[in-house]
Amino acid sequence: MNNMTKGAEGASAFSPMTISDADFRRMVNFIQSSYGIDLSQKKQLITGRLSPAIRKLGYKSFGEFVNHVLDKKEDSEITLIINKLTTNYTFFMREKEPLDFFREKIIPDLVQRHQRDKCLSIWSAGCSSGEEPYNLSMFLFDYLGSQASQWDTRILATDISAQALTAARKGVYTLPDTIPPEWKRKYFTPNKDGTHTVAPAVRNNVDFRTFNLMGPIQFRRKFDMIFCRNVMIYFDQPTKDALVRRFYDATVPSGYFMISCSENLGANAPYRRLATAVFQK
Ligand SMILES: C[S@@+](CC[C@H](N)C(=O)[O-])C[C@H]1O[C@@H](n2cnc3c(N)ncnc32)[C@H](O)[C@@H]1O
């Protein structure tokens, strides 16, 4: 056996540490009450994703780490937990049908409504590494064409994962085939290693910020449209219902709301359904 991989508990540095049921429950409760994410069925995910980092920090057991996190609530450890335990999977052009609805129906309506102030307010809540808000920006630029410079279409894009937001701000991606060739030319700059960087105009049109959706939603303006796709799938129903209510309050009258095609809003949702995954206040 390689000595380098010999860690606490005599296991390899890469094998998950064991966690007692009590410590697992304490960890699950902390994550759920702080961030809404329900990991009560995800013991392996918690131990698998956190163990290498916990060992590296010198903790002898999972219990010791949980005690420290709950007692001290230090930023560095909270950041580690969020970076490791959030699921940041996302990609450009995710779910074409609702995006087509946004492009064909919602953008023209919002542009019509805002002819005077020329200012849209759109929020990508749970934006992960940025593909979603950049994608929305590209739709807006396409629609506005030469008029775009007269408009303020800046998109607020928020997440709790510092790691995801760092990648989002960099805006460097391996582009999937689903990106239209015209977009590749217009909205990206190719890099030597085959990746592409989002063009400055699109980058500057997205304002990335850290924001925990479990907190009060207090932004300067209400939103013409809120996207919260593939985020609430990790929340339990009461958490989701309460968040949808807060989104509703933060939406302008007749404003829009989009979730993912695999989610439901629940029977008591205040929004009116318009199309698959698309709702209106
Ligand atoms: C699967 S990604 C979705 C990305 C994109 N919206 C999409 O549909 O492709 C879910 C994101 O939600 C974020 N998230 C989870 N809980 C959150 C919370 N309480 N506050 C803010 N963001 C959260 C995660 O960090 C993750 O980046």
Q: Which distinct ligands sit in these coordinates?
A: S-adenosylmethionine
**Rg, nearest Å:** 21 Å
Q: Can you identify the CATH class of the largest domain?
A: Alpha Beta
Tell me the span between the first and last alpha carbons. Answer: 61 Å
> Which structural class do the helices and strands define?
alpha/beta
Report the helical percentage: 40-55%
Q: In what order do the strands lie side by side in the largest sheet?
A: 6-2-1-7-8-10-9
Give a quick account of the main beta sheet: strands, pairing sense, barrel closure: 7 strands, mixed
Kindly summarize this structure in a few lines.
The chain is an alpha/beta fold. The protein contains 10 helices and 10 strands.
